[in-house]
Amino acid sequence: MDLQDLSFAVDGGIATITLNRPAEANALNLRMAQDLHTVATHCDSNPAIRAVILTATGKMFCAGGDVVSFAAAGDGVNELMRNMTTYLHAAIARFQRMNAPLVVAVNGTAAGAGLSIMLTGDVVIAASSAKFTMAYTGIGVSPDGSSSFFLPRIVGMLKAKEMMLLNPRYDAAQALALGLVTEVVADEEVLPRAQAIARKLAEGPTQAYGSLKRLLLDSFHSGLETQMEYETRGIANLARDTHDAREGINAFAEKRAPRFQGR
What we know:
Layout: E1 6-11, E2 14-19, H1 30-45, E3 51-56, E4 60-62, H2 67-73, H3 77-97, E5 102-106, E6 109-111, H4 113-118, E7 123-127, E8 131-133, H5 147-155, H6 157-166, E9 170-171, H7 172-178, E10 183-185, H8 190-202, H9 206-218, H10 224-241, H11 243-253
Helix pairs in contact: 1-3, 5-6, 9-10, 10-11
């Protein structure tokens, strides 16, 4: 893959995506959005990938959009933002509906688009020194990156409005209390902890993980009976079509640990 503003590696069924613009606080520009779409599509398409880690280099996770590039675009900023969000939103959709769980390792401040991207993680590990803020209205724009979808579902509508209108800054402990992150660890333990979780997930029933991710996503707009029908189809199809469901059922009956293969 021809990547410029992030790095990508796969080892032992675990893909690691690393935002790599540390001199610019890993701010999201058009090329990084394109790179995210490229790697997200690969992770969604490659059945050998059974867990994905998203992290960043340097002291910040992502400071948001690359405001310098917005200013430089002048009258073309409308087209630039349309292009950026097209790639970013397509990447987020891939991450949300792929089978492999997404573990986000927040090594530093997550602001604006950085916070939006963080909220898409299935598991979010944050450094104890990390800070969090929405920031969009601070430069006179409204949120993107799916945050208007996920944030009110995580913190409630009134809190989401507060975060988006007033841009309060939260430390890691406050973010944990709000449910923005799964776990807070010492700064030096962020990536090792994310890797440990990814290894555990990569040994699990990957097809079942994908089914439950899509069930949860669809539950936001399905009625009760529709959602239960999705549940019926999901569990029945997994039992019929996947090695891991048969292995899990047989292992339980035989009183042994299952050996999942992600298929």
